[in-house]
Structure formats: C-alpha cells, structure tokens
Amino acid sequence: MSSHGDHDAREQDSDDVTPTDAERSARERWAGIVEPGDSTAHALVSTLGASRALDLVSTGATAAEIAEALLATTGAGAGEITNLVDLVGTGLQRWEGRIGSANNDSARRAADRCGARFLIPGDAEWPVSIDDLGEHAPLGLWVRGQLDVLPGRSVAIVGSRNSTGYGEHVTVEIASGLAARGIGIVSGAAYGIDGHAHRAALASRGATVALLAGGVDRPYPRGHSELIERIAADGAILSEVPCGTTPTKWRFLQRNRLISALASATVVVEAGWRSGSLNTAAHAATLGRPLAAVPGPVTSPTSTGCHRLLRDHDAICVTTADEVAELAGVGGDAELLQPLRSATETRVLDAMSSRRPRTIDDIAARSGLDHASVRACLGELDVLGDARHTPNGWIMS
Hints:
Blueprint: H1 4-13, H2 19-33, H3 39-48, H4 50-58, H5 63-74, H6 81-99, H7 104-114, E1 117-119, E2 141-145, E3 154-158, H8 165-180, E4 184-187, H9 193-203, E5 208-211, H10 225-234, E6 236-239, H11 249-262, E7 265-268, H12 277-287, E8 291-293, H13 304-312, E9 316-317, H14 321-327, H15 343-351, H16 360-367, H17 371-384, E10 387-390, E11 393-396
Parallel strand pairs: 3-4, 3-7, 4-5, 5-6, 7-8, 8-9
Antiparallel strand pairs: 1-2, 2-6, 10-11
Helix pairs in contact: 3-4, 5-6, 8-9, 8-14, 9-10, 11-12, 15-16
C-alpha cells in the first residue's frame, strides 16, 4: 500500500493538477485495482470522487472509516453503518492484493504505444448509454479509434463462435442491411457470428465497434488480430480493463453487459443452449433494451439457445434487416429513412416504370392527376434523383 507520505505528496501536487485530470488519473488507477462491474468500487467513486476514494483505500483507512465518510457525504442515517462496513470490508479484501501492485505506468506506456486513450464519464466521447448499467457501469473505458463514428442507433449482433453457414449468411445479410441504413453494429470480435457481423459492417462502409475482454492493445482472439485492427482504424475498439490485461472467462461475461448497454437493441443470431451470447441477451433484457433472436433449423444445436430465448424469454423473432431496424427504432423500409413522400409524389411514382419511359400524358392518365401537377412533380423527382427525362419520356431512376 502507499504510505501516508505518498498521500501528503499528492496533496502538495494537487495545485498542479486540475480536478478533471485528478479524477481521470484516479479512475485509471481504480480500473487497475478492481474487476469489471465492481458495484462497491462504483459506489465509493461515485459518492466520494475517485481521488478521495483512492486516497482512503490506498492509505490504509479501515472499512469503518470509509463507511463513515460515505455516510457523511450522503447524509444517510447512522443505522446503515453496519451494512456499509460489511460491504466496504468485503471490497477491501478483494482489492488488497492489487492496491499497491497495480502497475499504471506500464499500462500507460502500453496505451501510448497502441494509441489508446482513457475516457471517463463527462468526456465528450463518453457513451452515455453505458450509464444505464448503474452501479455496474465502468469507471472508465480505453478506446482505440473514433467512438463518435457510432450513430445514434446501433444494434448488437452476437452469437455462437461455432457458427454454421446458415448463421453466417443471416448475420451478413442483417449486418450489411443495417449498415446500409446508417445503423451501427456492436459486437465482441469473437470467432463466428461476431466476426461476420463486424466484417459485413466494414464491407458496407458502416460503423462498427468491438468490445474486448482484455486490453485494447491485446487483440483477442489472435486469429482476429487483423480484423480488430481494421475495426480500430475505421470504427473503434473499447475495453474497461487497462492495456496489458489478459481476457478471462469472468471478463468475457462482464464485457457482455457493455455490448448490450452500448446498443439500442440486441439480436442473437445463433446460440447453443449454454452460449455466452445468452449472457449478453440477459443483460439486454435487464436493461429493458429490445431483444430479438433469429430462428434456426429445429435440428440444429447452434440454434437451441435462440429458440430458448423465443420460447421462454419473450425475445422477438426477426429474420431480416428491416425487422431488426424497426426493433432499433428506425423504420425497417429504407424509404422510411428518407424524407416522407407527398401523396402526389407517391401517385406519380406508382404510375411510372423503371424499365420503359412514359409520357406525361400516360403518367397523368395512370395516376389520375392533372398534367400541371404531374409536370411539377416530375421536376421535383428529377432534382431528388428519383426520376429522369429521356427522349422517349420519363423513367424511374
């Protein structure tokens, strides 16, 4: 643990560091001490501030002293002290082995080498939807790439690592269709469904973001190193653990809550009975985010998890990008993303053909509109690029 002398030194240096810098630095240290989703650490940091909370735990304050500081800050009744002491005491036991050993300098150097930066709540780039995780929200996020490329609406597409040709085909169709509609794709960069979702988004020049269970400087799985680098170049990769951190089973499960929180809706394409993607689905349901699943062959073990979601957990059945877009709050039909057409425009377009030109007289007769209205409407459609004039008449573009 740090000595009280270190604490005094920090106090002396405090005038040289803005509160924002101090908060960022403290949250960065906290992220190296606690595991993702630690609600006790989140309570201390959100109530006392990251710097003060760090000073208390790193200078050897007892659970009772920290609990008293919490009560004094919140104004809660003294009757809660026993529960707080127990809660903080358990947290101190979890963190004890890392408080003095977390190597922030090494993590920072690794972040510098890979071009990563550390975001905290309040930063312009901070994804505020993550805050819906409440006491399990991350204390900060390391980012490589441009997180602001992610549009206001995005969909998490997750599924089995042992995907089938059927699941991969459906994933590509849905992901590319969503990307074409300006909807972002969020996933975990794993083999199988995740990887195909990211690749389809990139191929469609759409926005995609990957959440990693280890440091953003350690692409995992290694077989997806090139894919992850492409995501970092054209989108963003994120992690709540410091650079240099290795992924573990627990961190994968905790990473899944970030995937569901970052997206407007979650779709499970293929999942076995015990697939980890069901964990992501559970987080989405807990957050109240729309949850959907793609049905698969009843004989396929890689679809049993999807059928379980549809049968037992009120997931919505989806099969197309249109249906998923609607789930995310965007009209599934691509035309719904364009300015609404007037009744006249709709009638004129219905009267036209994309294969053979038609005269104004013909369009007027077919649409039931007068010639002047048709002529004015065709001029507007020409400007919008929906119709064009040829020597033989008008044709749909």
